[in-house]
Amino acid sequence: MGTQITPDQLALYATSMVTQEELGQILGVTQQAVSKMLTKPAMREAWDRGRASTKQALRRAQIEFALKGDRTMLVWAGKQYLDQRDSPKEIDIKSDVQVRYIAEWAGAAPEELPAPAGDLELIEGEAEEEE
Fold first, then answer.
1. How many angstroms separate the CA atoms of 128 and 56, rounded?
2. Is the pTM of this model over 0.70?
3. Is 34 left (phi over 0), alpha (psi -120 to 50) or beta?
């Protein structure tokens, strides 16, 4: 290998999130040589430790921004840690309400409408208030 490197030096490079190819350029070796070096347990542990340290610091900063009210980071944190997503699951009751509304708007008689899927009292009550 062109330049010798200790595990501690490797960990320091890894905190910069350099790629194996970039590290090879820094050390004057090929990416394949870096990859081979990372097969040694001490070197792999140093590489992983350095990258994990930076990932943890980034995650901490993202969470701090989210907790300060940054909307983008709040969405990110919700998706990462609360299993939230952009579009909610479509539920049967919503589909049933849409079908009933369209059918009523089109002038269908109540007995011709499909039977409600579950308890729709609140939704039907709201629809009656809007008329």
1. 53
2. no
3. alpha
